[in-house]
Amino acid sequence: MKTYSGAPYAVATHSALQRRLLRNASFPARAPQQDALHMTPVPMVPEVHLFLAEDSVLLWARLEAEAGTPLPAPYWATAWPGGQALARYVLDNPEIVAGRRVLDLASGSGLVAIAAAQAGAAEVTAADTDAYAIAAIQANANANGEQIATVVEDLTGGDGSDFEVILAGDCLYNADVAALMLPFIGRAMNRGATVLLGDPGRGYAPPGLLRTLTTYQEAVLGAQEDGQRNETSVLTPVAVALTS
Ligand SMILES: C[S@@+](CC[C@H](N)C(=O)[O-])C[C@H]1O[C@@H](n2cnc3c(N)ncnc32)[C@H](O)[C@@H]1O
């Protein structure tokens, strides 16, 4: 198990955004500072440590106050149940990614990307539309000693270009985002990519179009609104009907 005493991450980080994110981060966790990030092992994936929020609403308020502008919710400061399931599955089945070019779509904290790198992927790219997520992914990759390329772009209009494996943890979290993700997943599958989703059953995974590979029963650390959610699955598309 890696230890995280000291602050080796500080010398390895670059952007002003990362410095803003990490300014109040504690490493290892110290006395409660509820609007801060804490380096935390991920419950279902203790191989990975992430900068996570103690209270993401308070963190969000602080970041908005510092930025002086409204910001998207800091989804990157939570290890979502779908991402935890998918990262666990990839680490337990490394042949899925080993030696392959992997895209972690809707990467958030970078959890799934880091797991793919640990499992032996040839190259890992993490994509998210939130620039704060990109800063967090880079900080988390550094802290875990992994190299992850990052893209701050919505890639859902395409088919995943030449990525051989596409992973997406908790990408079906509302109707609007699911409406972008599902056609993308279908196009990627149809050109031959391996596509895996992690999903805790939020109601946006169309029955019959996604097959369950495994389900974990865990008391996971999720978003505050996930409350007692304790089941999370890994899914793969099965039908060309996903394509539009
Ligand atoms: C619920 S979080 C999941 C994060 C991570 N995969 C996990 O499981 O912990 C969803 C993420 O999707 C990102 N997102 C939303 N729409 C997106 C899009 N069109 N392309 C890429 N990322 C997107 C959000 O910014 C957010 O970071």
From TrEMBL:
Determine if Transferase is one of this entry's keywords.
Answer: yes
Do you know which Gene3D superfamilies this protein is assigned to? Vaccinia Virus protein VP39
> Do you know which InterPro entries this protein is assigned to?
Ribosomal_L11_MeTrfase_PrmA (IPR050078), SAM-dependent_MTases_sf (IPR029063)
GO biological-process terms attached to the record:
methylation
Name-wise, this protein is Methyltransferase
Alphabetically, the GO molecular function entries are: protein-lysine N-methyltransferase activity
Keywords annotated in UniProt:
Methyltransferase, Transferase
